[in-house]
Amino acid sequence: MSSSENWEELLLRVSKKFKVLADFDFVLFLIGIQERGLGYKKYSKEEKMDLINLARCKMFEKAGFYTEAGKDEEGWPRFEVVKTLEDMLPSEREKVLKQEMINYLDENI
N or C: fewer beta carbons within 10 Å in the chain? Predict the structure, then answer.
């Protein structure tokens, strides 16, 4: 099964489970909620963006690009760059994120 088939299968599973039309950002949002550990509640747009960014960082950490470097005063993880992403095309970054999201959800659901 190709990674694009795995990705489509993941979106279908998440869509059915949460009764939504899941997309890339929704999956990141779910991972961010899981990683933050505060559970689901009503989040502001800014909080949603923070959770999506947290998930991106965690996925890049799993892929070896970032490392967690402690927490800030609000308990959010801080990350340091291990390998730069600047030389990667956006499509390559997305491919890395999708593969890590597939792996993450396979391990955590």
Answer: N
Q: What tens digit of pLDDT does each residue of 33-88 get? A: 999 988 888 999 999 999 999 999 999 999 999 999 999 999 999 999 999 998 99
Three-point CA angle 87, 70, 106, nearest 5°? 65
Task: Give how many domains the chain has, as a whole number.
Answer: 1
Look up the domain containing 99 and give its range. Answer: 3-108
Burial of 91 (0-12, 13-18, 19+ CB in 10 A): exposed
Which two three-digit tokens encode residue 14? Answer: 């998440």
Separation between Cα atoms, residue 56 and residue 60, nearest integer Å? 6
